[in-house]
Each structure stands twice: as C-alpha cells, then as structure tokens.
Amino acid sequence: MTDLNKGYNLLPVYMQNAMRRYVEVGQRPGDFLSAVLSNNFMDAWLRADNLNQKVMRKYAEFLYVYAPPASYRSKENFETWIAAGGLEGLERYAKYCKEEETV
Which range of residues forms the domain containing residue 63? Predict the structure, then answer.
C-alpha cells in the first residue's frame, strides 16, 4: 500500500485526523466525510465548508491513490469498514485467523 501519511497531507489540516481515525481504526467521521466515503458527492458538496468545496478533487485523489479500496466507494463499504475497526481491526482479525490455523 502507498504511504497513507503522504495521502493525509493532501487534505486540509483540520480534516486529516478524522480521515486518519476512520481509515486506521474505523471511527465514524462527521457528515461531510461520511458522504465522501460513501460515494455521495452531492451530499458531500452540500455539507462541505468553503475550503472543502474547493479541494473536493483532493479527496478523490486521496481515495483513489492512498485509501484502501474496501474503505469507501459505497455506503455498504463505509459501514463495513467501521464495523471491522479499520485497518487495525482487519490486522487483528488476520492475526487471529493465522493463530487459529496453527492450533
């Protein structure tokens, strides 16, 4: 996977932590990011502040280049990512499965 930290830097500084928490631990973000991640760009545009409206293309770039594909693209993917606990939850699950194989 590409360097997520580089990707976070594409976003406005005040949005980086919310995106980081969503991707890494599956924490539900606010309405604007929820719309972006659910691929509802009309709703995202309506919920965006002035700066986020100006940088919507950066969100698309972040998602396309840096974000795990399973973490966005639809409302279903978005909700599943949260339920899984983001990257950390998926890593814990993979580790658990590997340990179960050796038992």
Answer: 4-101
